[in-house]
Design brief:
Blueprint: H1 5-37, H2 46-75, H3 86-113
Helix pairs in contact: 1-2, 2-3
Length: about 110
């Protein structure tokens, strides 16, 4: 069974957006850590930069965990001929929801306080 070119384009676009978001999060994480360590003055408080890092890293991480949980639940992961236990899918989806809630909360805190 062949996948459509539109599906490949959407997958590549989603992966690119996720990697770009994670890269932005790493840059904010480095900038926030450097602002705490160094004596230089920054435009935004270091706490806001670290919250942005949590948000930008948490969104693709949570989405990836939710996608892997869906894939594991629907298709199963048969390693050594044994079916995938349902608790693994539940744990990944719960962890994905926690990551997404933390990321959205970080963005809301930055929006409200700064």
């Amino acid at each position: 069974m062949r996948s459509s070119p539109l599906r490949h384009f959407v997958v590549v676009l989603a992966a690119s957006v996720g990697l770009f978001s994670a890269l932005i999060g790493v840059v904010f994480l480095i900038a926030g850590a450097q602002a705490y360590i160094g004596p230089d003055f920054t435009d935004t408080p270091p706490f806001a930069q670290l919250l942005y890092a949590i948000g930008f890293i948490g969104l693709p991480t949570g989405t990836l965990l939710m996608l892997k949980a869906r894939h594991s639940f629907k298709l199963g992961f048969e390693k050594y001929g044994l079916p995938d236990p349902p608790i693994r899918s539940f744990f990944m989806s719960a962890l994905g929801v926690v990551c997404l809630v933390a990321a959205i909360s970080a963005f809301v805190i930055v929006w409200l306080l700064f």
